[in-house]
Amino acid sequence: MTTTIIQAVGAAEGAAETVRATCLRIAEAADRAGAELRGGRNPLPRAALTRWESALTESWQALALVHTGLSAARRLPGAPAYAVGNVLDGLAAAREAAELAAGDAAWVRRGLAVAEDRLRRAGADQPTALATADRWGAACARLDLVAARLAIGVRALERYADQLAPGEHPPPPPAALSTPPEPAERRAGVASAGALLRRAHGWRGWRAFLARVRYEVYRELARSIPW
Amino acid sequence: MVSRYAAALRDLAAGRLYEHDQRLRRFDEPAWQRYGELLDAAFRLAVHRRFRPGQDRAPIIRFVASVRERYDHTGQDVDPGVAESLVWAALGERDPVPMERAAVTAQTLLVVGLLEDEGLAPTELESFVRQAEAEGYPD
Q: Within 13 Å, how many C-alpha atoms sit on residue B138's CB side?
């Protein structure tokens, strides 16, 4: 019985690896085909892309089910012992892959920013060129976010690895506290940050709407008074 | 139920600036001090969730640049040197930065930028704020 469970868990682990590789290959195939075929009028490429995207969704779901099953199977009596070393190795590999991906995202972002800048300057009087430059600018912002989210994920895995193997990476010394600012400085600093955020995002919500209306009414009133 | 300081921080991070302003208006001196402690703790926590001590400088430079790009449209309201020093000081790798008005502004925007990048769901933001509160004044 125990041997069978161990064999089953081992087989499922191998299957998870293969399904993961399959997911990545399908994603690459769908993306490459999408880059060439999207926007065309012929229904055949559209049908191919739709099927591949649906195959990708199914594969990720299958992978999730395999992982869920694995974590349940590891709790069965006689299942292979929970090897912290293996988990740490797996996490280290995942972190390395994420850091490489973040590096690629940063590198591509630089190239795209240069392309955006060149197009913006070369096509300053052409709306299509400016719209394209805007799209590339938006892509740069998204790549920034990709790098940020990858870094946050890497740090979360590092903290988890520290919990699994305490003492392997001693925690850093606590940051020295700065002298608290004078209350007036704090107030002015926070107010100035709030003003910058409002300029960037504007007011939000119904209270914000009322505040805007109030502001406009006061402004009109001030204009109508013959000073 | 979170404290009024934590509620103000939550509104700030969620972009509810009107509510944030309204809460701050009701703060007296001791409340401002508590809010400042909470902001410091949230900043340290958010920095450690994104960066690690001893890491490359480039990601921190890029992060500060992205915060300035997002919120500092004049390019003169957030000093990049001060902002980077704040991050390094939070990681324990540099002496604390004197907290003058410019540093407080930078710190507040960095907290907002860090949390915005994390894309936290409301419940996750709530739990972050609670954790910051526990670290800011554990009493």
A: 1
d(CA B65, CA B86): 14
Residue A127 Rama label (left phi>0; alpha psi -120 to 50; beta)? alpha
Interchain CB distance below 8 Å, A175 and B24: no
Q: Which residues of A touch B44 (CB under 8 A)?
A: 175
Sign, CA dihedral A76-A78-A82-A83, equals: negative
Of A150, A192, A199, which to mutate for an interface test with B (greatest number of B Cβ within 10 Å)? A192
Whole-number Å distance between alpha carbons of B8 and A164? 35
Question: pLDDT 10s digit of each residue in chain B, 139 long?
Answer: 778 899 999 999 998 888 899 999 999 888 898 899 999 999 999 999 999 998 889 999 999 999 999 998 888 889 999 999 999 999 988 888 888 899 999 999 999 999 999 989 999 999 999 999 888 765 5
Give the count of Cβ contacts less than 8 A between chain A and B.
146
CA atoms of B97 and B83, how far apart (whole Å): 9
Tokens matching residue A188: 């002015």
Please state at what angle helix A2-37 crosses helix A43-73, rounded to 10 degrees: 160
Q: Which two tokens stand for residue A87?
A: 């988990």
Contacts of A173 in chain B (CB under 8 A): 92
- Contact status, residue B3 vs residue B133, Cβ threshold 8 Å: yes
A186 touches chain B (CB under 8 A): yes
| Tokens coding A223 | 């204009």
CB-CB neighbors (< 8 A) of B121 in chain A: none
